[in-house]
């Protein structure tokens, strides 16, 4: 636990994490009573939102868009907020994505060409026999 009471148990793994798929798993130690609240703030915005409120000891945040986020936790409606955990979501660049798609297409075409060439060569040898 941090100096604020409750904290993310996987804080070290989360610190300055870069998610490449918009998914983040947040974990904490179970709390008696009403449970916890987890808050999300997206950098560059003035607002925050409560992502989770309940008694579970983890939540998976999905569907995050590219950008910088911070998450913090507190015991439901009573405790002080923990220090924010910064997380960045950064997807594969379009240039890299298209390069990989083109490379994959070349491999598929080369494989089909090799199969066709082998089949034609085999049929020519059978025709000679």
Structural summary, described in words:
With 129 residues, this protein is α+β, with helices and mostly antiparallel strands. It folds into two domains: 11-89, Immunoglobulins (Immunoglobulin-like); 92-129. Helix content is 30%, strand content 30%. The chain has helices at residues 11-14, 94-128, and strands at residues 17-19, 24-27, 36-42, 48-54, 58-61, 67-75, 85-89. A five-stranded mixed sheet has the order 1-7-6-3-4. A two-stranded antiparallel ribbon has the order 2-5. It is elongated, with a radius of gyration of 25 Å. The termini are far apart.
**Shape summary:** elongated
CATH architecture of the largest domain: Sandwich
The run of helices and strands is HEEEEEEEH
Per CATH, the superfamily of the largest domain is Immunoglobulins
Number of helical stretches of at least 4 residues:
2
Quaternary state reads: single chain
- For the record, the CATH class of the largest domain is Mainly Beta
Radius of gyration: 25 Å
Major β-sheet annotation: 5 strands, mixed
Q: Look at the structure and give the mean pLDDT.
A: 88
Tell me briefly what this model is.
With 129 residues, the chain is of the alpha+beta class. It is 30% helix and 30% strand.
């Amino acid at each position: 636990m941090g100096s604020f009471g409750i904290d993310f148990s996987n804080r070290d793994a989360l610190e300055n994490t870069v998610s490449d798929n918009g998914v983040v798993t947040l974990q904490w130690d179970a709390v008696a009573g009403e449970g916890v609240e987890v808050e999300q703030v997206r950098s560059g915005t003035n607002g925050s939102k409560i992502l989770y409120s309940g008694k579970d000891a983890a939540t998976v945040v999905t569907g995050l868009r590219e950008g910088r986020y911070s998450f913090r936790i507190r015991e439901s409606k009573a405790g002080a907020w923990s220090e924010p955990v910064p997380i960045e979501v950064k997807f594969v660049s379009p240039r890299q994505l298209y390069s990989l798609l083109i490379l994959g297409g070349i491999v598929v075409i080369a494989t089909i060409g090799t199969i066709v060439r082998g089949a034609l060569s085999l049929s020519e040898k059978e025709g000679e026999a």
